[in-house]
Design a protein that fits this description.
- Helices cover about 40% and strands about 20% of the residues.
- The chain is built from 18 helices and 15 strands.
- The strands form five sheets. A five-stranded parallel sheet has the order 8-11-14-7-15. Strands 1-2-4-3 form a four-stranded mixed sheet, with helices on one face.
- Strand 1 and strand 2 form a beta hairpin.
- Helix 3 packs parallel to helix 5, helix 7 packs across helix 16 and helix 17 runs antiparallel to helix 18.
- The longest helix is centred in the C-terminal third of the chain and has 21 residues.
Length: about 475
């Protein structure tokens, strides 16, 4: 009995989990079996692998092949496992024919094969090549016949490290063009959004229908700075796990509708693997939710945990996966079902008292405390001269999205430097509300507002909006 073990990899969240493909030959009727919890895609590939073994390997009529993939409790999925299964069976049959043991190097094998014997790339192998991992794959051998010649040699060496694709890196060197969204007046609201973007603070925009809440949210998404290189590297792995390709230097922007299920935010299980959701796909970018109270209660309340810990923990089929979820959250909402209630009166509201009260209770107190800035937008916007802002501040607010993104990135670095320079005892705040208020105050000071004006705005933006019956 000859036993061969081939190392391979499988995606588990953002990490690569090591798998072992074990192949053994028994005397008996010619047969090929696969065990170790293979998924449907891998089960369908058994006939293809069996055909390649018949054509390119010395498979005798009395050779019974059994392939097992370890660890047994993990579901194995992905077409990149086809090549290691073929390599393991080929090594067993070649060692029997040549009467010698083949010693494989401790290098993972990954790749897909077709009926013609060509070894092809998959999304997973492309990601491994981008990460610079050393493995046997389509970049080393293009056909299984070449692989059989290599297995027949005595000098079976490790493959060279994958070469970096400099042309694709240069092609993505320029940032994509930002959407130019124009907003007239609304200087205080834009200043609040600018302040929230610097600190990546959750912001809630309340107001009647048609006042421009959604338009301001789109403007906010257009000024978000480009993620750092480390965040972009994480985004490439997250999007690849979802089956999408992340464009370098782009800002993730997602606008889910108000009927989105909680599994779409947190992530779900697909083909035995954990898939990221909106929380992780928007990592380093913007997540905008229009009509936030219309979201299901379980989907709303999950934001309380995610906004605080900046990650999502999932547990699927014995696998624990943690997805990063550090995004800037913008929510818009109507004050009542009809949308025309105001904080001071309900003279224009046509809702019954029970409808109005039930709608108000959709935004719980703990959930409202997560928003650092809460703005009620009136239908009548103030003119620029009514705000008493410095001309320099107005010039910044009216600049292009590219200049605003550079301005935000510069102030973010300054805010980070100030936070590191503060002594630990000076950071003790009585409550979450005081902490958020203090953060907004510091950001307004960094932007260039006078101390008195910064204190007034940070206090008014942090107040919980109370609607009187």
């Amino acid at each position: 009995m000859d036993l061969v073990t081939v190392s391979t990899l499988q995606r588990q969240g953002l990490d690569n989990m090591e798998l072992r493909v074990e192949a053994v030959r028994h005397p008996g009727t010619q047969h090929f079996s696969l065990s170790g919890l293979p998924d449907t895609q891998l089960k369908d590939a058994r006939d293809k692998i069996r055909s390649l073994i018949h054509r390119y390997c010395p498979w005798g009529l009395l050779d019974r092949l059994i392939v097992n993939i370890e660890p047994a409790e993990i579901i194995k999925s992905g077409s990149h496992l086809e090549l290691p299964i073929f390599v393991a069976t080929a090594c067993v049959l070649v060692s029997k024919q040549n009467e010698r043991q083949i010693f494989l190097p401790k290098v993972p094998v990954a790749g897909s094969v077709d009926l013609e014997g060509n070894i092809r790339h998959t999304h997973f192998t492309k990601r491994l090549q981008q990460e610079g991992l050393i493995f046997w794959g389509p970049h080393n051998v293009s056909h299984v016949s070449e692989l059989m010649k290599i297995l027949a040699l005595d000098n079976f060496e490790c493959p060279p490290s994958p070469a970096e694709d400099t042309q694709s890196n240069n092609a993505c060197a320029h940032a994509p063009t930002r959407n130019k969204i124009h907003v007239l007046n609304r200087e205080e609201e834009r200043l609040a959004i600018l302040c929230a973007s610097i600190g990546k603070l959750p912001i809630l925009l309340l107001g009647a229908p048609g006042v421009g809440k959604s338009h301001l949210a789109k403007w906010a998404a257009s000024i978000c700075p480009t993620p750092s290189s480390k965040t972009q590297y994480t985004l490439e792995k997250i999007w690849a796990a979802f089956g999408m390709s992340y464009q370098a230097h782009s800002v993730p922007q997602f606008f889910p509708h108000s009927r989105t299920h909680i599994a779409d935010f947190v992530g779900r299980k697909q083909r035995g693997q954990s898939m990221p959701g909106y929380f992780s796909l928007a990592h380093g970018g913007v997540l905008v939710l229009d009509e936030f109270p219309e979201l299901a209660r379980d989907a709303r309340e999950i934001f309380r945990l995610v906004l605080e810990q900046k990650s999502v923990d999932c547990f699927y089929s014995g696998q624990f996966v943690r997805w990063p979820a550090d995004f800037w959250f913008i929510a818009t909402a109507n004050p009542c079902p009809c949308g025309y209630a105001k904080p001071n009166n309900r003279s224009q509201c046509s809702c019954a008292f029970g409808q109005w009260k039930a709608y108000q209770q959709r935004l719980s107190g703990p959930l409202l405390d997560r928003f650092a800035i809460k703005l009620f937008m009136d239908s009548k916007a103030k003119a620029p001269e009514e705000h008493d802002f410095k001309p320099e501040i107005l010039a910044v607010l009216n600049s292009s999205p590219e200049n605003l993104a550079d301005f935000i990135e510069e102030k973010q670095q300054k805010l980070l430097a100030n936070s590191k320079s503060m002594a630990p005892e000076t950071c003790k705040i009585a409550s979450r509300s005081d902490l958020l208020k203090n953060t907004v105050f510091k950001i307004l000071k960094i932007i260039g507002l006078p101390e008195i004006q910064a204190h007034q705005l940070s206090a008014s933006w942090n107040e919980r909006i109370q609607f009187q019956a």
